[in-house]
Amino acid sequence: MNKLKYILILSLVSIVSFGQERIFDKYDFDSEDYILIGTLGHSDKSGLQDSLSEFYTTNTEILNEFKTEWVFNESSPFYACGYHFFVHICKNGKSIENFAINLYCNMISTSNGYFYFDSEKLRRFAGRLDKPIKKEINFETIEAGRVYLDSILRQKNLIMTLTPDWIKYEGEFEFIYPCGELKKKDFCFENEDEILQNLTIELKNKFPSEIFDLNSSGGSTNELYVTVKSNKTLADQFDLYKLTWKKWKYYKPFLTTWWIKK
User: 54: domain range?
Assistant: First the structure.
């Protein structure tokens, strides 16, 4: 093969590979114990969602088929459709990565953006996937919930539990951050990540002994509403910005778990 032709082939391969989303390539299903589980989301009713319901597999052959088949080449715009399924890769009872799928909008959401999703990529596995046992538990206290969760993470038939906020924090409250007198309509939202980073530094300097997590919860042209997950001691001391009507709220210790059917 002459050198020019070889270079052109390599260039073509690079172009084809670039932009592909190979969501399972990082996982070695042959040598490590992973579980794939699909849990139900909320969107318009779907026949495929009804027929599949929640599903899981530990079968290495099927996991490798997912790896081969779930490769996405076409990006998708974001649609405010809601999601029919959340597909998780799990290990040791915890979700380590998840993807959201809407069957009508033909969209899958990944950490690298949104891609076109052909529902046949899921339908072809119908009848080969197992059904998990789902358990929902309320606890009288956060401490009781934390003790229970710690105990089940050592059980081999646990597929997944989504780590609830009450594992780390007692509750949450919300404040209003003024972005300033700005003419640019969407400044707050366009600069949301930077604003939250700066606020995190500000709160750490003011309350160095407190643990917390900040998330945007909407806003207006020049205001950003910020939810603070924390312990009650931070809420009692907080005086940096005006609170919204969502003042302190304790979390209710509630846990959802999925198990392998014995």
Answer: 3-123
